Amino acid sequence: MRVRGHNGARAYSSVVSRTPAPWPPVPTELPEPHPDAPAAGTDLPPHYAFCFGCGDKQGDGLHLRAKVGGEHTIRSRFTVTEAHQGAPGLAHGGLLACAFDEALGTTVGHLLRKPAVTGKLETDFLLPVPVGTTLVIDAHLDGVAGRKVYASAEGRLGADGPVAVRARALFVVVELKHFLDNGREADLRAVAADPSLLGSRPVELNP
Ligand SMILES: CCCCCCCC(=O)SCCNC(=O)CCNC(=O)[C@H](O)C(C)(C)COP(=O)(O)OP(=O)(O)OC[C@H]1O[C@@H](n2cnc3c(N)ncnc32)[C@H](O)[C@@H]1OP(=O)(O)O
């Protein structure tokens, strides 16, 4: 269907399709997890105490918790609270996207043990997610092409519930310099003074 946008331009319906594009979008390899990657069944502690996705020191954060699943998968859970609402009694879509960013980033970081940041994140919201729901997110490492790492995930309303959200993301492997050059100095100093703020380290920070 062709739809005209408010400025007369041909709008989204012909551009944004529900038919998924090929994934990963480029040829990739699926590497073995890093030899030091945590074993299946390992509970992963928060990677940074002030992370909005997983940190214990973020009162209204998502407090996402992750456990290593199969060779290329990590299962994460987070419970939607009143602080996460976008409409009465329903989770905000942006916060759900945040949960997937976290779950996917955790998967890439822990399985490859390389620092990587999100370059692109796309989400399909299939069902509303009510306050009180525990969203169970199964994320999968899909492939690597140079510095580009592709991962995807689906989130269910409870472990056996229907799929409510799907996401795909591109992560780009970066040097630790990325964080040192761009992070706020006060926060970097705080981490240097108290390394326990970095609870689980998907990468070695002391070269
Ligand atoms: C355990 C940890 C859990 C963490 C979970 C949370 C993760 C996060 O939220 S990270 C924070 C959000 N993300 C960011 O702040 C990243 C900001 N962006 C950047 O710093 C840069 O743009 C960065 C690093 C992604 C890429 O820059 P740069 O290093 O110069 O690489 P660049 O050459 O531009 O891109 C590398 C490749 O990726 C591709 N690429 C980069 N961005 C995109 C994109 N949006 N779409 C498609 N391809 C892209 C490039 O085309 C390039 O491909 P190729 O190698 O084939 O030429």
From TrEMBL:
Gene3D superfamilies: Hotdog Thioesterase. It is an enzyme of class 3 (hydrolase). It catalyses: dodecanoyl-CoA + H2O = dodecanoate + CoA + H(+); (9Z)-octadecenoyl-CoA + H2O = (9Z)-octadecenoate + CoA + H(+); decanoyl-CoA + H2O = decanoate + CoA + H(+); tetradecanoyl-CoA + H2O = tetradecanoate + CoA + H(+). Keywords: Apoptosis, Cell membrane, Cell projection, Cytoplasm, Fatty acid metabolism, Hydrolase, Lipid metabolism, Membrane, Transit peptide. Residues 21-30 have a biased composition (Pro residues). Residues 89-156 form the Thioesterase domain. InterPro entries: HotDog_dom_sf (IPR029069), THEM4/THEM5_acyl-CoA_thioest (IPR052365), Thioestr_dom (IPR006683). Residues 1-40 are annotated as: Disordered. One of its GO terms (molecular function) is hydrolase activity. Its EC number is 3.1.2.2. It comes from the Bacteria. It is found in: Cell projection, Ruffle membrane; Cytoplasm; Membrane. One of its GO terms (cellular component) is membrane. CDD domains: PaaI_thioesterase. One of its GO terms (biological process) is fatty acid metabolic process. Belongs to the THEM4/THEM5 thioesterase family. PANTHER family: ACYL-COENZYME A THIOESTERASE THEM4. This is Acyl-coenzyme A thioesterase THEM4. It comes from Actinokineospora auranticolor.
